[in-house]
Write a structure and sequence with these properties.
Elements: H1 2-29, E1 30-39, E2 43-44, E3 47-53, E4 58-65, E5 79-90, E6 93-104, H2 106-109, E7 119-134, E8 137-148, E9 160-172, E10 177-191, E11 197-211, E12 216-223, E13 225-227, E14 236-244
Antiparallel strand pairs: 1-2, 1-3, 1-14, 3-4, 4-5, 5-6, 6-7, 7-8, 8-9, 9-10, 10-11, 11-12, 11-13, 12-14
């Protein structure tokens, strides 16, 4: 009996040791990022990303966007979730292609039934990020195509699809401050009733404050609208913040 208890203790200690070491290894390779963005069109839209780094060249990632925090609340509390890979092309240069899915009613129903009409599998979102973060330069390019995954549109309505992309680039004055320019465009590419539409297109400068200690930042972007198919506005602005740990 004593021998069995001693054996059991050894097995438990061994298992706990492996579990601790594995957990430490997992923590060392896993990162979590949270971002908060607010602008004139989408309103407040928090987002999170989790990545597990397989090696120096590639990681697997998952992300979520809480669009329902802003105007997305009227689209069946719109939510986006997906995953992909993060490719480390060179020091400070990454490419992150993803495949996402939306939950709500914007794409599949054309937002026909508002907050109460949300469904799972509303749409599909192939997208990618290209990032540059080197000593004196920072840049980000995003392209996402939002297409309906189901057709639940009413008889007098239509499914919808959108193209959303932006590009920015900036100069790092120091580790704590940078500035640059931002261009962004949101276009409706499919609507059998209302046709295609440029929701907004704008170009302007940004300033960014960085906190290297917590890998955090605060960015304000603002500038004139180049094109708007909804209503004329003389300017556009976006506030973003986030951190990684």
């Amino acid at each position: 009996m004593k021998k069995n208890l001693q054996t059991l203790k050894i097995v438990v200690i061994f298992a706990l040791t492996i579990s601790f070491n594995f957990s430490f290894s997992q923590e060392d390779k896993t990162s979590y990022s949270i971002g908060l963005t607010s602008d004139q069109f989408f309103g407040f839209a928090p987002n999170v990303t989790v990545e597990y780094k397989l090696n120096d060249k590639i990681g697997v990632s998952a992300y979520g966007v809480f669009w329902g925090g802003g105007t997305g609340a009227a689209w069946g509390n719109w939510t986006e979730f997906g995953g992909g890979v993060n490719l480390y092309l060179a020091e400070g240069i990454t490419l992150n292609p993803n495949l996402g899915f939306t939950f709500g009613n914007l794409l599949s129903k054309g937002a026909a039934d508002g907050q109460l009409g949300g469904i799972a599998g509303d749409g599909i979102v192939p997208n990618l990020f290209f990032n540059v973060d080197v000593p004196k330069l920072e840049s980000e390019v995003y392209v996402g195509y939002y297409a309906p995954l189901r057709n639940e549109a009413p008889a007098n309505g239509s499914t919808l699809a959108y193209l959303h992309y932006w590009a920015n680039a900036g100069y790092k004055v120091s580790t704590s401050f940078s500035f640059g320019a931002h261009f962004e465009h949101l276009k409706r590419t499919k609507d059998d009733i209302g046709g295609k539409l440029d929701y907004y297109q704008w170009l302007g400068p940004y300033i960014q404050l960085n906190v290297p200690k917590i890998v955090g930042f605060l960015r304000l972007s603002a500038g004139p609208e180049v094109k708007n198919g909804l209503q004329a506005k003389d300017s556009f602005y976006k506030l973003s913040t986030g951190f990684t740990f």
